[in-house]
Design a protein that fits this description.
The protein has 161 residues and is mostly helical. Helices cover 76% and strands 0% of the residues. Helix 4 crosses helix 7, helix 5 packs antiparallel against helix 6 and helix 5 crosses helix 7.
Length: 161
Amino acid sequence: MLNFQDLYESYAPEVYRFVFWLAGDSFEAEDITSETFIRAWTKNSRIRTETLKAYLFTIARNVFLEQHRNRKRQVALKDDMPDPAPGPDKLVESQLELSRVRRVLQTIPEIDRTAFVLRVQHELPYAEIARVLRLSLSASKVKVHRVRKKLLSTLTEKEVA
């Protein structure tokens, strides 16, 4: 019985050459060859060809066609399109701002902080917050409003200074 290493060493060069002629690219041929052996080894179905080599070529061709179909759906990006992701400076600035918000939140009483987090982070309606914290609806609204006001005043003080 063949183990994976024997299978790969015996047939990989031939599968690679076959795929290289299909794809015309060595990197793509390497990827498809690897994928072919992974699929052949993990597939639990019966081989439907007369030889193992033909079976591997069938898998390789199917992988090539699958990748070719997927490539047709892809569109090349234009070079003039800016990267929408924030740069490292913006990421650091956001992390610093988040740290400031966390420090301010830790100075606020727990019940107010909980009401705020339930509203802002978990988007619970005020009525649900009131039930969770066993408060009146208006009290839950007031608690969230106070935390927002405290955060705004604290963060704007640091920007002015």
